[in-house]
Amino acid sequence: MSTPQDDTTLPSAGIHPALRWITFLGLVVIGLFYVKWFPYYQRAFFAAAHHSIGSSILTGSAATPPAPSLHAALDYARSYAKAIWKALVLGLLVGSAIQVLIPSQSIARALGASRFRSIVTAGLLAVPGMMCTCCAAPVVTGLRARCAAPGAAIAFWIGNPMLNPATLVFMGFVLGWQWSLLRIAFGLLMVFGIGHLVNRLSGTTTPALATPAPDDADVGNRGTGSLFAQWGTVALRMTIRLVPEYAVLVVLLGAVRAWIFPHLDHGIGNDLTWIVAFAAAGALFVIPTAGEVPIVQAMLLLGVGVGPAAALLVTLPAISAPSLAMLVRSFPVRVLTLVAASVFALGVLAGFLALALRV
To answer: How many domains are contained in the chain?
Structure first.
């Protein structure tokens, strides 16, 4: 059986290793510019001028979510899909490209060790990604298939939404810069703290549950046509495996969002019950990138306490039931349980800190 080889030792037949890297980096840069960087650059000016980035996807123009129904489910699914489909397609393309174009040795050198340095590297790589937790999941699947350590992969996954610079700018203009600072503090705790805990729990850098990656030497010997055909095959396989269950969960959550958020007004105070409830709801529900900003803005305008609002601001973008489901084949259940419990606990802590600091 062939073993993964370093970029410099790959055979020269077929597509050249440098061309594979150029193709991959071109996909990432052009894709992110089109899907994320340029649209968010324009959106930042709108946020600065209007102190808003739109209505809450949770309630729309209403004060409360609609009653559970098929119409509510499909309406939310349509709004959500419209907001994220480009990023999801990009995530699937990048996640599959990692498995086909990038040698395992390259990923292992940067992100494969259980050292804290690999977690920091993954967190920094996540910053320009700006993806929501679900759209980043296919990329994480690709990283795990290419020998990324569990903690580094989790740091990249959480870092995409939590350290998103565009969201932090929107938050500053819409909610106030104190909310951005709170988010930065807890984003750093989540990315680097949870990543470290995951590596400690896993005790290994081997992605035992990850999808087997194509053999590097074999890929190097293939022609260009075969390589891109293989890329398409891997992308299709990932789509079939990840998207259907993801879509079903989004529809279900859209249908029952009135049960998850039964009312959003001044009756929701700063007591422990509401902070815990909103931290749990945020860890369960699914939103597009920066969707938490108008949701929290609407809640504060309706009189919701700052404690529950802060808990939601921290947990809502970090994870969701659909994104956790997308990664069950890439991580042991105990790892995902630790991630979910840690995000929930930090959300509760954020609620009490916001209350103490009177943000």
So the answer is: 1
